[in-house]
Amino acid sequence: MKVPPETVSQMKERWVINKSSRELSQPEIKVLQRGLSFAVSPTKLPIVEFITSVEKACHLLGPNSEDANLLRSECVNMLKQAELPQSNICEEERKALRDLGDYDPSC
Q1: Handedness of CA 22, 28, 34, 39 (dihedral sign)
Q2: Which end of the chain is more exposed for a tag (fewer CB within 10 A), N or C?
Q3: Dist CA 99 CA 28 (whole Å)
């Protein structure tokens, strides 16, 4: 059974309940309507974290072993070819997320 688009938008309006004294903007409401399982695509690759994890694995293999060196070289090749995923939110929504994160209810 397909739900009409009007009904879906009415349902989404009920998903966000503002319990603060702050008025939410439309972009903030739109971002919050995406739900708890929504993840923003990264703006930069987590290279340091990736290298740290690879070095931990290499240490388990033996720091100077041939397998560890092979793993390092393969990871370097992967990082050279890595590209950022396309952004899944617009700049207005990104600003709304920053504003929501900066909100201090004690002020």
Answers
A1: negative
A2: N
A3: 8
Cβ pair 96, 30 in contact under 8 A: yes
Q: Is the dihedral of CA 57, 85, 89, 6 positive or negative?
A: negative
How is the chain split into domains, by residue range? 43-81
Chain centroid offset of residue 65 CA: 35
> Nearest 5°: phi and psi at 6?
-65, -40
64-83 residue pLDDT tens? 899 999 999 999 999 999 99
Q: Which of 77, 107, 100, 87 is nearest to 30 (CA)?
A: 100
Q: Which two tokens stand for residue 65?
A: 């072993």
